[in-house]
Amino acid sequence: MIMATLHPSAPLIFLLLLLQAGCSPVLQEPLPVTRLWAGQFCRISNEPEARWIRDQKSLANIFERLSPPSISPTSSKPPINDPIDFTKELLLLISMGEQPTAGFSLTSAPTAPILTNGTAQLNFTWHRPDPTRMTAQVITNPCLLVKLPNHGYRNLEIIDQDGKTQFQLPLDH
């Protein structure tokens, strides 16, 4: 019977070979994200944007802008039933900006968010109406509000269904 033993530096040599080949070990883990609300009339910005909501005062300010003036403000505001502990969680508001017709919306992608080497990658679907179909002529401003942990990553990438990075945000505390 022949017994083979590995040299003590074999794991290090293997790692160096991987790095030389352009492959690096990547740590991936799921990131807990909770969808809190989505709406069509967010009135946050005319341009697409993503922003952190880091405290109760900022959340109250955003809530004032999340419903159109012609609709009862109590009917379409986000129903956040549990208090947000901003020492452990952050809210992220993603807006498509002002859109000229109905048919635009944002939804969370079915794939789980991934944390890779300090960067959280969130996938969302950016729905746009079919340009060959008729849509209602109404100005909309679709947005999505999600809750994430405020630790464990340094940067956030928001990626659409085509794999395009729509936004990059540093976590900066």
Your description of this structure?
The radius of gyration is 22 Å and the shape is globular. The protein is built from three helices and ten strands, in the order H-E-E-E-H-H-E-E-E-E-E-E-E. The longest helix has 11 residues, at 10-20. The chain is an alpha+beta fold. The chain has helices spanning 10-20, 56-65, 73-76, and strands at residues 28-30, 34-39, 49-53, 89-95, 105-108, 114-116, 119-127, 143-149, 155-159, 165-170. Strand 6 (114-116) and strand 7 form a beta hairpin. The chain has one domain (30-170). The strands form two sheets. Strands 1, 5, 6, 7, 9 and 10 form a six-stranded mixed beta sheet that branches. It has a four-stranded antiparallel beta sheet with strand order 2-8-4-3, with helices on one face.
